[in-house]
Amino acid sequence: MGNGAEFERDLFQGDVPTDVVFDSLWVTYSEFWLAPAAGPYPDVTTAIPVGDAIAANGEVVGVPTKNSAGDVRVALSVWPATPPDGHGTLLGSATIVVEGRELHLINVEGREPGPVLVLDDDGTYEVRVWRSEPAEVTPEFFDIRVRQNSN
Question: What is the DSSP letter of 41?
Fold first, then answer.
């Protein structure tokens, strides 16, 4: 990803998230999930993405990939207010209830631990997911931004 500070500035358009985790994740079956806590994982069968849009059930968010198997890169960030739009194709928005203050990216098999983002509080979070097009970056790159819903 080159120079980290420059990449982050370009990715977030000068705005600053509360925290961000950059990592890679092995995916299979053209999907992966964003789920709270380390497990046991919630029911993912009702959050299997179809086509080119995320799917969610309030407990987990399913993210579609163009790769049937391989590594993807991910920026998982948390924001104190509405984040700026990401780059690439917006795959959708959803809400997720987080207990345990952690958001995990997990692959279908659940074998390899993925990136983990530690949040300030439990609660309901809005999730927005963008996928960069292959011409922009290889392997696929996902920009997942979350912010706590104010109640």
Answer: P
Query: E strands along 55-106, which residues?
Result: 55-56, 61-64, 69-79, 89-98, 102-106
pTM metric for this prediction: 0.89
**Residue 20 to residue 77: CA distance in whole angstroms:** 4
Name the CA dihedral angle for 64, 113, 115, 88, rounded to a multiple of 10 degrees: -20
Locate 113 and state its tokens: 């631990």
CB burial of 10-44 (b: ≥16 within 10 Å; e: otherwise) equals: ebbeeeebeebbbeebebeeebbbbbbbeeeebeb
Q: For tokens 């999907």, name the residue.
A: 31
| Tens digit of pLDDT at every position of the chain (151 positions) | 444 566 677 788 878 899 999 999 999 999 999 998 756 667 888 999 989 999 999 999 999 999 888 889 999 999 999 999 988 899 999 999 998 899 999 888 876 778 899 999 999 999 999 998 665 556 789 999 999 987 5
Distances (CA, A) of 138 to 1, 54, 119, 121, 149: 10, 21, 29, 34, 33
State the Cα–Cα distance between residues 22 and 14, nearest whole angstrom. Answer: 17
